[in-house]
Design brief:
By secondary structure, this protein is mainly beta. Helices cover 0% and strands 38% of the residues. It is built from no helices and 23 strands. The chain is flat and about 60 Å long.
Length: 373
C-alpha cells in the first residue's frame, strides 16, 4: 500500500529585496492552499470542488517598495477544465470509473472540440496509457465513457514501450456547462508483465503521479489552450490523503517557474534531508513548491523491471507543498524537507507552479529529481 502519512506545509514569505521563507506546519485536515473551496451541495456532483478562480480584485500580495501591485485578472473567453482521480487516496487508479472528468466553462458559447492529454511530460517518467495490457501490469482498460457527453471519437498516439503517451478525445456539441467523465488504464512501463496491481500498487496511477502532464483543449472557434496538470488542493476533509490532479485551460495563466536546488546538481543523491529550492520569477508572484516522494517498486516484475533508468520512480508514497511569494530581487529560497518512507523510496520529484493571484495555476517547472539516501 502507498504510505498515507502526509504532511502539508505552507511557507509564507514576507519579502524585502530577497524572499524570506518561514515554514509553518498545517494540520492534516486543513486546506493545502486557499484557492480551492468546497461548493454547496446544490452544485452538480461533477462541478463540485473545482479550482475556485477569484473574480474580485482583492490582492494576495500587498505592493511594497520592492513588490509591484497585484495585477488584475486577464480577460478570457474559451475555458475548459480537467480533473484526474480527484479526492481519491494515494493508491487511486485511473482504471476506476469516472477517474477523468472534463468540463467546458467557456463564457461566450465556445464548444470544446478536442482534448489532448500527453503523459510524456509528467513528473514521474514512463507513465503511459495502457489500453491493451502490454505496457505495465497485465490488466488493461481502453478509453471508456462513464458519464456525461459522449465522445465523437478517440485515438491513442505516440507509441511508447507497448503503451501510448497521448490520448486524444474529440467531441461534437460540447457546450458550456457540459461535462464528460471517462476512465482508462495508465501504468508505469517499469512493471511490464507483472500481475495487477503491481508491487506496492505501483500499477495504480493517479493524478499526483501525472502532475506535469500536458493537456490541450481545442475549441470550435479555433482557439487552442495548453496547460499542465497540478495537484488538486485538499478539500478540508481528506487533508493531504488524496491523489487528485487538475488543470484549468484558459487565457491569463502565469509563466513557468525556473527552479534549482541550492548546492545540488539534479539528478543527484543527497544525505541531508534539509534542502533549499530557489524559485526564479516575477517579483510578487505567488508560488507553490511541490515535493513528491516516490519509490521504485519491482518485486515480482519479470527480469527485475523493464528499461529502468537511474533515479526512476514508479509510485508516489508521500507529498508536501510549500507556498511562497517571489521577492523583489526576482527569486525566493524555499526550505524543503526530503523523506524516505522505506528502502525503495526516497526518490523525490521537485517542481513548482505560479499562481496568477486569483487561483489560476500556470505551467509547472521542469521537475528536478533528488534522492535521499
Amino acid at each position: 500500500m502507498k504510505a498515507s502519512r502526509i504532511l502539508t506545509l505552507i511557507v509564507t514569505v514576507i519579502a524585502g529585496v530577497i524572499g524570506v521563507a518561514v515554514l509553518i506546519g498545517v494540520p492534516a485536515s486543513s486546506q493545502a492552499a486557499p484557492d480551492l473551496t468546497a461548493t454547496p451541495s446544490a452544485t452538480p456532483r461533477h462541478r463540485a470542488l473545482l479550482p475556485h478562480i477569484r473574480y474580485d480584485l482583492a490582492p494576495t500580495a500587498t505592493a511594497t517598495s520592492v513588490l509591484p501591485p497585484t495585477p488584475t485578472p486577464s480577460p478570457y473567453s474559451a475555458s475548459a477544465w480537467l480533473t484526474i482521480t480527484r479526492f481519491k487516496p494515494l493508491n487511486a487508479s485511473t482504471f476506476n470509473t469516472g477517474s477523468f472528468i472534463v468540463g467546458n466553462d467557456s463564457l461566450h458559447g465556445e464548444r470544446l472540440a478536442e482534448l489532448r492529454i500527453d503523459l510524456s511530460t509528467a513528473i514521474f517518467p514512463d507513465m503511459v496509457f495502457d489500453p491493451f495490457g502490454q505496457a505495465g501490469d497485465t490488466v488493461a482498460k481502453s478509453y471508456t465513457l462513464d458519464n456525461g457527453l459522449k465522445q465523437a471519437s478517440y485515438t491513442f498516439e505516440q507509441p511508447h514501450d507497448g503503451g501510448f503517451d497521448v490520448l486524444v478525445v474529440r467531441y461534437n456539441g460540447f457546450d458550456p456547462g457540459d461535462f464528460s467523465s471517462f476512465s482508462v488504464d495508465v501504468d508505469p512501463t517499469s512493471i511490464k508483465g507483472v500481475g495487477a496491481p503491481g508491487p506496492a500498487e505501483s500499477g495504480s496511477v493517479g493524478g499526483l503521479e501525472l502532475v506535469g502532464a500536458t493537456v490541450t483543449a481545442t475549441f470550435d472557434n479555433g482557439a487552442t489552450i495548453t496547460g499542465q496538470v497540478y495537484r488538486l488542493a485538499d478539500d478540508g476533509g481528506l487533508g493531504g490523503h488524496h491523489s487528485g490532479g487538475t488543470v484549468m485551460l484558459r487565457d491569463g495563466r502565469p509563466p513557468r517557474p525556473q527552479i534549482s536546488v541550492l548546492g545540488v546538481t539534479p539528478p543527484a543523491t543527497v544525505t541531508n534531508a534539509n534542502q533549499t529550492v530557489r524559485v526564479v520569477g516575477p517579483p510578487g508572484q505567488p508560488v507553490t513548491v511541490l515535493v513528491v516522494e516516490g519509490g521504485l517498486f519491482l518485486a515480482g516484475v519479470p527480469n527485475g523491471g523493464f528499461d529502468i533508468d537511474p533515479f526512476e520512480a514508479n509510485n508516489a508514497v508521500d507529498v508536501r507543498e510549500y507556498a511562497a511569494v517571489v521577492g523583489g530581487s526576482g527569486f525566493v529560497d524555499v526550505p524543503i524537507v526530503l523523506m524516505k518512507q522505506n528502502a525503495e523510496s526516497g526518490i523525490h520529484a521537485v517542481t513548482a507552479v505560479f499562481d496568477n493571484h486569483y487561483g489560476l495555476k500556470g505551467l509547472v517547472a521542469a521537475p528536478l529529481v533528488v534522492e535521499l539516501e
